Structure formats: C-alpha cells, structure tokens
Amino acid sequence: MFDTWYGGPSSFLEHGNGSSLGQEYLINDAGDVSPVHGSVGGSSGGSSQSTQSSAPPAPTLVGTGGGFQIDLIWDSSVANAPSGFMQAVIDAAQYYTTLFSNRIVINIEVGWGEIAGSSMAANALGESESYGYVGNYYSLITNALKQDGYSFTASNEPTSAQFWLNTAEAKALGLVSGSTVGTSSLDGYIGFSSLSGTGYSWNFAASVSGSNSGTGANQFNLEAVAMHEISEVMGRIEMEGASVNGAKTYTPLDLFNFSSSGHLELSGGGGYFSTNDGATKLGIYNDASAYSGDIADWASVSSITQSATQGLLKGYQDDYDAFAWPGANGEVSQADILEDAALGYNLTIAGRNAA
Prior knowledge:
Blueprint: E1 2-3, E2 11-13, E3 24-27, E4 33-36, H1 44-49, E5 60-62, E6 69-74, H2 85-99, E7 105-112, E8 126-135, H3 138-146, E9 162-166, H4 167-172, E10 186-192, E11 201-203, E12 219-221, H5 222-234, E13 242-244, E14 247-250, E15 257-260, E16 263-264, E17 272-273, E18 283-284, H6 288-291, E19 317-318, E20 323-324, E21 330-331, H7 334-341, H8 349-354
Parallel strand pairs: 2-4, 6-7, 7-10, 9-14, 11-12, 19-21
Antiparallel strand pairs: 1-20, 2-3, 3-4, 5-6, 8-9, 8-10, 13-14, 15-16, 15-17, 17-18
Helix pairs in contact: 2-5
C-alpha cells in the first residue's frame, strides 16, 4: 500500500491574465502555501525544462473547442517516460472533457519522476500543485454555487472565514477568465513516480470510460492516479481550517464535508461527502489526523471498500481514494463526478448519465 500524497496547500501566485481576486498562490502536496510573483510562465516548471537534456513533447490540448478543455504541457522529463505513459494521462483528461461542459481551458504541466522540476516524496505515486487565491470569498463562492442548485444552511457555515480557491475552479465558477491556452495561464502541476527501485510497476492500460482493467498484483493503475491528480488541480482539495497567512482557511469542498446532518466537519478528522446538507452520505473522507494522507480523499487505509462511495463497481478502487493498493483497477465513481460538479463543473448529458 502506498500513500498517494495527493493535494494540500502550498503557495500562491498571480495568474498570467490577471484577476480581480487578487494575489495568487501555489499549494503543494505537503500542504505548504506561499505567494508567487511574476508570470506563471516563469514558475519552477517552466525553468526546470531548460536544465534537462531532452526536449519536451509538444503540449496536448484535449477536448473540443468551445467546450471543456485540458491542456497537458509535458515537462522534459516526459521524453524519457515509458511507452504508454502519455496516452494514459491523455485518456484521463479526455474523460473529464466528456463529463463537463464549462467553456474553459485548464492548463496543467505534467512530469515523469518529478513535479514542477522538483523531486517527489519517496512514497508518492502521484503529486499535484495548484495555483489559487486566498481571501474572504465565502459569499462569492456560495452565490456562484447556488446558481447550480446547491444550498448552504449548515449550523456552522464558516461565513466570515478565509477561503482558498484554485484558479481552475475560479474559471469553472466564472470568476476569472478561462479561455487562455498555455503556460501564461497555468493552473497547476502533476507528477508521477517512476517507481524505480520499489519492486512495483505501472499498468499503463487506459481508456476514456473512467474505469480500467489489467492491473497486475505488483502494479498500480497509472490512469487512476492521473484522474486523481487532475481533479486536485480542478479544485478537489480541502483545508478544514489550516492556517494560511495566520488565518484559518477553508475551501469550497469543505462546505460539502459533514460530520452529521446539518453540521459541517471542518476539522480534518474525516466526515462524509453530501450535497443535501448532510442528509445523504455519498462517500467517507479520509481521517488525515489519524492516518495522514489528504483530507479531501476518500477513506482507504484499511481496504478499497472503506470509502463507501456511491456507484463504485465491486472489486474496483475509487480513483479519489487517499491510499492506493497494488493490483487494484481504478474507477471514477458516481460520488467522484458529483463531487466535481459540486465544485462548479457543469455536467454534460454524458456526465449526468454517469452520475
């Protein structure tokens, strides 16, 4: 069992096209947050390519113009990745573009054996880093999500608290411009372990259906990890009161994490996902305070069934689980799709059918 180490706050920076939301930051998998100055194109990911010997593959823009698109910007490290790696990541991105209809482009830089030009944690299968904003955005976020039919009536709504908002989610909510392609509007980074020296390998088999097969006993499912990491850049992270610039900070997803009906969890100690004020449990969150891993991931430290996510096929592991198990094929569950939709991503007909 490997701790996937997905998500977590790290640092903030200003988006290439500017934003009325103010200073941008970057958040990494270790949970660190720091301001970034200058254009996104001058970030660590862009500069790392010049220090590597191989030229990066050309970016891959996935999706249909005028719809939801993901621009995969390959680091130089990807030139040395095994056959099948790029296609697995492309298929993961392609599936998201069939689920959602927002007319935006999310720009993600992709690394093999590294993330944003830096080494990954020793036990990480994948990692993500995301750009975003910090401010008193509760009303801004909830008013945008109310347009999609969500209500926010918990007894402990953090109405006056500080919020973290990923740039990609800000695009989805219509709060910043979202049509620019390329590094000038970079939304984040994802990186994947080479698994060198671990005794494990990757299953690179991929599909655009949201589920996979063929993962061997000593293998991990690459496409499942790619789905996981991409979704974090899209905004699937929680902070549950973590301190940023000396203030307790939350994320939009925290507003869907309940400890009981009508009461938000807001502590990082687990909870469950619900879109109807806690009345219906759609998935159980990881108790990061007890097991480490990410707050926004599903519980999975003891088994692939611990998450209890709605719509997960028997024998499959949920792609959004906190801990990955060798030999398990990954799947995007109905709960995963509903969770992304709760972040402001509008479902296509195919997305509604899948959810």
